[in-house]
Design goal:
Helix content: 25-40%
Number of strands: 12
Largest sheet: 4 strands, mixed
Radius of gyration: 23 Å
Number of helices: 11
Order of helices and strands: HHEHHEEHEHEEEEEHHHHHEEE
Distance between the termini: 84 Å
Length: about 270
């Protein structure tokens, strides 16, 4: 009889664990936490999660990291990325930050509806697709040095690149986010948030003159002359010409001020 009562209590362990997580404002957990806090075996914990049906879902079939799907998120199939991304990367033990157009969107720059969350990481990762949510990862060796800041008014902790770092990344990864024109379009609403000292710090950390040349040219075209001067002041004096769009052939007017070959129709010549 005692064994039966004990088994009955254990049967609801995963359900109670999830309720506790939600009560503390958490919507994600690794299987190891469930096992540790409930005393369930790994097999029993998995079986109980399976019986919970669409109340929980895995981030990836290859990973023992789960999301709690509240009724208001059932149609999407997962809670918002911003609610669990920090917990996910803490579990992975890897650095990250909300990046590119997703970071720009957090600062109010939304020129195009974005259907994916863009995240910067240190090592290559497969995209995540859970329910209707998609997370795309970009790799950067200086991810830990890139200036970041907590996302304002966030439901859960979340780091995003600063406006200056976001602007640099948008130019660096322009080819993967829709082109240099899309990058410039996203940068334009960020201009009031950019500060010369922060931009100079990012240029020093990244130390990529070719990207800086492209950035200075775009900033000048957007009318941000003071910021463009900051970039020009950082650039080495002896620079080779670089194409505005790497790998794109065509008529290429030379922009001597930036040592740019303007091979992009989107940016005025």
């Amino acid at each position: 009889m005692k064994q039966s009562k004990s088994k009955s209590r254990m049967d609801g362990s995963a359900d109670a664990f999830i309720d506790q997580r939600l009560a503390s404002g958490r919507v994600a957990f690794p299987l190891a936490d469930l096992v540790k806090e409930t005393g369930l075996s790994v097999t029993a914990a998995r079986n109980q999660l399976l019986r919970l049906g669409n109340r929980v879902t895995r981030v990836s079939p290859r990973q023992q990291f789960f999301l709690i799907v509240s009724p208001e998120h059932r149609a999407v199939g997962a809670p918002p990325v911003a609610w669990w991304l920090h917990d996910y990367f803490t579990w992975l033990g890897q650095p990250y930050y909300l990046a590119l157009q997703s970071a720009a969107g957090s600062f109010g720059s939304n020129p195009q509806a974005l259907q994916v969350t863009q995240v910067m990481t240190k090592i290559p990762r497969r995209s995540i697709e859970v329910g209707r949510i998609r997370v795309q990862f970009f790799v950067k060796r200086t991810v830990e040095q890139t200036p970041t800041q907590p996302l304002a008014n966030a439901f859960a902790p979340l780091q995003a690149s600063t406006p200056a770092a976001t602007t640099f990344d948008l130019i660096r990864y322009a080819a993967r986010i829709g082109g240099i024109g899309r990058a410039a379009e996203t940068i334009a609403p960020l201009l009031p948030l950019l500060r010369g000292v922060e931009l100079r710090r990012v240029l020093k950390i990244e130390n990529e003159p070719a990207t800086a040349q492209r950035l200075g040219f775009v900033l000048e075209k957007l009318g941000a002359t003071q910021l463009a001067k900051v970039v020009q002041g950082w650039l080495p004096s002896d620079l080779p010409f670089v194409p505005l769009v790497p790998g794109l052939r065509g008529n290429t007017p030379e922009i001597n001020r930036w040592r740019i070959l303007n091979n992009a129709r989107e940016i005025g010549r």
